[in-house]
Structure formats: C-alpha cells, structure tokens
Backbone:
C-alpha cells in the first residue's frame, strides 16, 4: 500500500512517515523545505520537494496513493499571521484544497487531515468535546484550519472519499523544537524548557504560569493517526489529546526549580483540555505515553 504525507520534513509529518515505514508501507513524502528540516526525512521514503500550493505537483505526486496524510501547514509561530494573512491562507486553506482535489482525481482510499485544537480557541467546556462550538476569533490560524477542516469534510462527501479530521492537541516530542530553526517549533514550550535547563538558564514562564495545556506525545499522535486512517471511520472529527491538562508552572517545576516569569504572550488562551472519549469509544484508541515518561525520554535525547 502506498501513502503520501505532506509536511514530511516537519515535526508530526516526519514521525508519521517513520511509523508508516516501520509498518511496511511505501511512503511518498512531500515538503517544500521552507521550514521543514531535511534531516527529519526518513531515507527509506520517496522524498520529493514540492509545494502543496502547486496543484499540478500535488496531482503528480498523488498518483497511485492509497492513503493521503495532509500534515503540511504554516503555523503562527513562523510569522505573525496578522502581518501576512494571505501567505498563511494560501498554505493552510488553498494548499489543503489542492491536496483534496488531487486525492479526488486519483481516487485515494482515505484522506486524513491534521487539524488542531486551536479551533476551540478559549473553550468554555472542559474537557472539550468535538461538538463544542469553535471560537475562531483568537487568531487567523484557527479560522484557516477550521475552514480547511470543513472543506475536507465537504469535498470528501462530494467526491466519495473517506475522510477523517484529527484535532491534535499540544503535541511534543523529538523534532518539535529545532534549535537551528527556532521559528519552526510546533509546540515548543517543553523543548524550550529542556533546552534552558540543559544550558543552566532559568525556565521562562509567561504570566503567572496558571494557564494549562493538554500535552500529547508525538509517538501517540502518529500511531493514532495511522490507526484512524486504517479504520472504517469516515466523515468524522476526533480529538487527539491526553485527556488531562497541566499548568505551565507545574510543567516547569517538574523540570527545574530555576524559574523566572515574563510577560504573557498576546492572545494566549487560559486553558486547553481535550475530551478524547469519542476516539476511544469509536476506534478504541487512546494515548499511552505519560507526560512524565515523554519528558524523560526527550530530556535523555537532549542531554
């Protein structure tokens, strides 16, 4: 079976490629390397430098593909999206439409869209279920990913392509923080804290650290993503979360006692905590790597 993974040189995409190859799949990896790192590319994959905004390229690379994993995106950390909303829109929405059209034309067996918990913004219900109302006015990224997610469901139904959207929560693990490209950090706080501790510097906590996050290890994310693709799920949205939430201050204290407080980031939400019961009830899937073990594994790699 052949799979295509966009964003294959990025954080989550590269881990999905690794997992697919370990399971014996043939994998085409696509990335324009604008922010991805070639060192993340699995040498056993068929890696191709291409931009998802190029419809002809995406159609070409999608030939014969059975499973399409769309992970490529332009994140808020790369450049403030309010300063360049057109660039972000073109990647996150138009690029997704190009991928969907290519999947439709080649008759891909399954399309998996890497969505995000950012769609919930500052949620009002905790733990937050998939049916919670989106709060899209927190940042353009939320609007763009929600639009792309809805396009995925719409075009999947229109062209009879099985589709699944996975709303990833704060994913962490190896490759999430690239010291050579700090602007390409997916969910950098754990990586930043470990780097600061390694260098003997104080951990910088924004605000009073009471804001909390639902961290999920990339090993679990990649495993769950592939299992969802291989399942019978269609026209479904699933939270991919740990189902727990920890404050940033508690997280920092678990790594070091040397902590300083800095001004809180603009637009930073107070609480993120996902309900992952639908994922378990429908597909029997849930995360297995505890935050403590995940941080310990990552620290051992960095130290």
Residues:
């Amino acid at each position: 079976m052949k799979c295509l993974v966009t964003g294959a040189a990025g954080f989550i995409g590269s881990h999905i490629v690794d997992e697919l190859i370990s399971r014996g799949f043939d994998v085409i990896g696509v990335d324009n390397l604008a922010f991805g790192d070639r060192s993340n590319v699995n040498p056993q994959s068929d890696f191709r430098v291409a931009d998802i905004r190029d419809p002809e390229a995406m159609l070409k690379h999608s030939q014969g593909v059975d499973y399409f994993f769309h992970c490529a995106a332009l994140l808020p950390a790369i450049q403030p999206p309010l300063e360049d909303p057109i660039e972000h829109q073109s990647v996150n929405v138009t690029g997704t439409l190009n991928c969907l059209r290519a999947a439709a034309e080649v008759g891909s067996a399954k399309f998996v869209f890497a969505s995000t918990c950012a769609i919930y913004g500052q949620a009002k219900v905790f733990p937050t279920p998939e049916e919670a109302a989106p709060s899209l006015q927190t940042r353009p990224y939320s609007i763009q990913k929600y639009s792309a997610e809805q396009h995925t469901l719409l075009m999947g139904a229109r062209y009879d392509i099985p589709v699944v959207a996975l709303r990833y929560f704060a994913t962490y693990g190896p490759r999430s923080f690239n010291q050579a490209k700090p602007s390409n950090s997916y969910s950098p706080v754990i990586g930043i804290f470990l780097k600061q501790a390694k260098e003997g510097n104080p951990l910088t906590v924004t605000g009073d650290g009471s804001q909390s996050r639902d961290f999920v290890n990339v090993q679990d994310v990649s495993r769950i993503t592939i299992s969802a693709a291989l399942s019978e799920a269609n026209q479904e949205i699933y939270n991919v979360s740990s189902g727990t939430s920890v404050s940033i201050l508690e997280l920092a204290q678990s790594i070091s006692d040397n902590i300083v407080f800095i001004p809180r980031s603009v637009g930073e939400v107070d609480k993120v905590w996902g309900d992952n019961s639908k994922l378990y009830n429908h597909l029997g899937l849930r995360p297995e790597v505890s935050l403590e073990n995940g941080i310990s594994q990552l620290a051992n790699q960095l130290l």
Remarks:
- The first strand starts at residue 2 and ends at 6.
- The chain has two domains: 2-170+216-240, 176-214+244-275+290-302.
- The two ends are 38 Å apart (CA to CA).
- DSSP finds nine helices and 13 strands in the chain.
